[in-house]
C-alpha cells in the first residue's frame, strides 16, 4: 500500500509539500487544483503552481499536478505544458465548492455522465493513454450514482482514479463510504486510490485492509492533524516526538513558509542544494540542520528569531490548529492561537512542553475532536 498527501486547496503548497517530505514516509503528493478557464491562464502557468516540474531532479517524491476545468479545451491547453514536466495530469472531478459547481467544473462533471464521457474521451484522444488521472467523489447526492460513473470511466486507459468516499452533498461531513471505494477498485481495470477518514493505523486496518484490490490511498485532514501519520501507517505503531523535534520541525515549517512568501527563487536554490536530501522523522539534530539551511537566508539560528508577517503567521496558526489535535490535551490551548508573534508562540509551546513533563510527546488521533475539523460542525454527543 502506498500513502500519498492529498491535495488541499490553500494548504498543501510547495512549502507544506517540502515539509511533509522532510518528515518522511509519504510516497507521493498532489498539488491543489489549478482552476483554468477559456481565457486563464492565457500564456504562462503561474510559477507557484508547479515548481516541482522545474526541480524534478531534487524533489525525492512524485508530485502530481491537478487541474480543474469546465471544458476539455481549457484543460488541454494547460495539460500540454504540464506534460512536458510531469508524467500525467490529474483532472479534478471532486471539488464540492458551490462556485466551481455553478461554473461547470469540479464535482459538477459527475452530475451528467454523458458530459463526463465526452470530456474524458476528448482528453484521451488528444493526450493519449495514461496521461490523465481522475479524482472524483461517489456522486452528487447518493453513492448509488457511482456505478453509472464507473461505467463511463471503464473503457478509458486512465493513469488511475482516486475515489473520495463522499458525495458532493456530504462535502467533508459524515463518514467516508469505503464500500463505494471497494466497488470502484473491483470494477475498474486501472489503479484505484482511496480517500477519506484515514486518521490512524487503526482506521487504516478497519477501512482499507479488507479491500485487497486497492493499491494506494491519500491522506488529507488526517495528515494535517498528525503530520507523522505516514510513519504510523507504515509501522502500524503510534508515533511520538520529543520537545526538541516539536520545536525544530515547527520552526522549519515556519521558515519554509516565510522563505516561499519572501523569495521563492531562494527556496528553489536551497532545494537544488539538498534541502530535501534527508528525512528528518523524529531526529531533532536533522531538523535543526534543515532549519539552519533555511535560517541562513536571514542570519537566524533559532526558530524564536523568526519574524513572521501576519499572513504567514496566520498560516502557521492554521496548520498548528490541526496539528495540536493529535498532541496531549495540554497543547490544545486556545491562547496559543491568539498570540501576536511567532516568537511568543514558540515560547509558549516550550512552556507547555515543560509543563507536560515527559520526554516523549505522543501523536495520536483524538476522535472527540473530529467534529471541529468536519463540515458538520456538530459536536458528538
What do these coordinates show?
- The protein is built from 14 helices and twelve strands.
- It has helices spanning 14-23, 72-82, 98-102, 113-127, 146-153, 178-187, 201-207, 221-225, 229-235, 243-262, 264-272, 284-295, 310-323, 342-356; strands spanning 2-5, 28-30, 34-35, 63-64, 66-68, 89-93, 132-137, 161-164, 192-195, 216-219, 239-241, 361-363.
- The strands form two sheets. Strands 3-5-6-7-8-9-10-1-2-4 form a ten-stranded parallel sheet.
- α1 (14-23) links the parallel β1 (2-5) and β2.
- α2 runs parallel beside α4, α4 runs parallel beside α5 (146-153) and α10 crosses α11 (264-272).
- The radius of gyration is 21 Å and the shape is globular.
Care to give the gist of this entry?
The chain has 381 residues and is α/β, with parallel strands linked by helices.
Number of helices: 14
Broad CATH class of the largest domain? Alpha Beta
Strand order of the largest sheet: 3-5-6-7-8-9-10-1-2-4
Per DSSP E runs of 2 or more residues, the count of β-strands stands at 12
Helix content: 25-40%
| CATH level-four homologous superfamily name of the largest domain | Aldolase class I
Radius of gyration: 21 Å
Amino acid at each position: 500500500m502506498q500513502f500519498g498527501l492529498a491535495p488541499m486547496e490553500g494548504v498543501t503548497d510547495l512549502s507544506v509539500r517540502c515539509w511533509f517530505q522532510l518528515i518522511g514516509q509519504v510516497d507521493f503528493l498532489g498539488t491543489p487544483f489549478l482552476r483554468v478557464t477559456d481565457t486563464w491562464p492565457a500564456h504562462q502557468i503561474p510559477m507557484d503552481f508547479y515548481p516541482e516540474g522545474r526541480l524534478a531532479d531534487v524533489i525525492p517524491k512524485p508530485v502530481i499536478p491537478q487541474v480543474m476545468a469546465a471544458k476539455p479545451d481549457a484543460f488541454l491547453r494547460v495539460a500540454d505544458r504540464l506534460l512536458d514536466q510531469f508524467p500525467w495530469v490529474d483532472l479534478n472531478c471532486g471539488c464540492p465548492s458551490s462556485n466551481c459547481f455553478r461554473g461547470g467544473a469540479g464535482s459538477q462533471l459527475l452530475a451528467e455522465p454523458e458530459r463526463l464521457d465526452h470530456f474524458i474521451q476528448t482528453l484521451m484522444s488528444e493526450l493519449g493513454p495514461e496521461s490523465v488521472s481522475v479524482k472524483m467523489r461517489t456522486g452528487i447526492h447518493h453513492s448509488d450514482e457511482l456505478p453509472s460513473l464507473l461505467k463511463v470511466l471503464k473503457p478509458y486507459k486512465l493513469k488511475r482514479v482516486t475515489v473520495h468516499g463522499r458525495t458532493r452533498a456530504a462535502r467533508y461531513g459524515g463518514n467516508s463510504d469505503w464500500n463505494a471505494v471497494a466497488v470502484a477498485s473491483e470494477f475498474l481495470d486501472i489503479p484505484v486510490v482511496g480517500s477519506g477518514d484515514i486518521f490512524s493505523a487503526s482506521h487504516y486496518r478497519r477501512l482499507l485492509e479488507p479491500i485487497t484490490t486497492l493499491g494506494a490511498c491519500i491522506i488529507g485532514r488526517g495528515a494535517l492533524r498528525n503530520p507523522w501519520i505516514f510513519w504510523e501507517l507504515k509501522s502500524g505503531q503510534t508515533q511520538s516526538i520529543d520537545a526538541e523535534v516539536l520545536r525544530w520541525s515547527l520552526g522549519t515549517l515556519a521558515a519554509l513558509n516565510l522563505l516561499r512568501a519572501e523569495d521563492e527563487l531562494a527556496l528553489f536554490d536551497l532545494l537544488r542544494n539538498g534541502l530535501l536530501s534527508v528525512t528528518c522523522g523524529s531526529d531533532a539534530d536533522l531538523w535543526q540542520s534543515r532549519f539552519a539551511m533555511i535560517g541562513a537566508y536571514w542570519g537566524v539560528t533559532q526558530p524564536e528569531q523568526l519574524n513572521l508577517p501576519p499572513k504567514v503567521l496566520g498560516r502557521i496558526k492554521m496548520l498548528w490548529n490541526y496539528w495540536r489535535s493529535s498532541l496531549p490535551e495540554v497543547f490544545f490551548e486556545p491562547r496559543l492561537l491568539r498570540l501576536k508573534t511567532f516568537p511568543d508562540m514558540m515560547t509558549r509551546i516550550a512552556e507547555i512542553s515543560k509543563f507536560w513533563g515527559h520526554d516523549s510527546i505522543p501523536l495520536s488521533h483524538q476522535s472527540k475532536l473530529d467534529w471541529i475539523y468536519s463540515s458538520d460542525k456538530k459536536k458528538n454527543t
